[in-house]
Write a structure and sequence with these properties.
This protein is an alpha/beta fold. The protein is 37% helix and 18% strand. The strands form three sheets. The chain has an eight-stranded parallel sheet with strand order 4-5-6-7-8-9-10-11. Strands 3-12-13-14-15 form a five-stranded antiparallel sheet, covered by helices on one side.
Amino acid sequence: MDDSRRELADAGLLIRDGWIEKVGPTAELPATADEILDLRGHIILPGLINTHHHLYQTLTRAVPAAQDAGLFRWLKTLYPIWARMRPEDIRVSTTLGLAELALSGCTTASDHLYIYPNGCRLDDAIESAQSIGLRFHASRGSMSLGESQGGLPPDSVVEEPAAIEEDTRRLIEAYHDARPGAMLRLVVAPCSPFSVTPELMRQSAALARAYGVHLHTHLAETLDEESFCLAQFGFRPLAYAEHLDWSGPDVWFAHAVHINADEVGRMARAGIGVAHCPSSNMRLASGIAPLRRYRAAGVRVGLGVDGSASNDSSHMLAEARQALLLSRLGQTVAPAIDDQPDLLTARQALEVATLGGARVLGRPDLGSLEPGKCADFIAIDLNRLDFAGGLHDPVAATVFCSPAKVDVNYVHGRAVVREGRLVTADLPVVIESHNRAARRLVQGA
């Protein structure tokens, strides 16, 4: 994914202190090093970047009452379950979700935690992320507009604006690392137009810019949200966000499904980014985001698996495949010069999942394998059932064929996955703890 989109055979990387120093033919690289990975027969790709997730939702996958609901009914079903969460639930769900992401090729994940019952804190998620070893963009989400004020969430799970601001300041000052190569960054992220007040949206934008951190929220996900914004505020969702100072290269929106051509142009000119979440948008019947139109206009677009209660998976390669397939279903095909459909390609889908995500998160140090960038890479053994018959184009095979787990995942030059195994956590123990917590939450015990 470098500027010339090179694809090199019999090549490798020289990595020093977490940074890529050289990329080229293996014969031109040093013969000795502190650690040598012999990955013959593998394909090496830049680490995939997840721009939108709710890791706590791994605890509520496939909940029966929420299986066949649109967004608003889905949320109303799950809010009371999430209200039972404890700090240990945040920790175990973050660990499990990041493990799943790592095994699917993700090296950087942005998580949006916006509900804090029973003493839960964003610190709980941060501590778990640090133990797994993925780069982490931790979003201090919030909800302040409860049912009694015309919002969607129950009053029991919303917070006072003053408390939200105080905790957000604390977290940024304690954790945010603005340096290149940072493993942890903070994001200011009110949940959505139907769960926070206009005043909190505007205050959040001012707070984020005072500290130089990014802004994130859900926007234009469903037609229900569009109707809500028009009825409550007199604006379509994007115009509402713009009215509240949510416009600029430090802003990215999750979903952005119901955005018209004029709005796409405004987003491109402002530098606003999008976390495209195709699986979740299909699962909740939200619609098909205009990915092709975004790319043509120059809007920054990355991939997001979204919450594992609306996907119900955290598999980044699967999400890249879904993005490719959904874009072909949803676009109005325009003839190309050779009269062939102008379709999103496998390589473009991988670009959205790598460089696209890096641009959305404001990370010029990530997204490609080239000198001067962070040593975040994944490797997949091509000699497996999933790719049999597809090795005439191994790059495309990683997207078109059955989504595979990776065999190797290194973040900043450190192993997170080796030989297909997570090396930073005891997965059987995590799974057992996670399933126990999920049963307690869903059963209400």
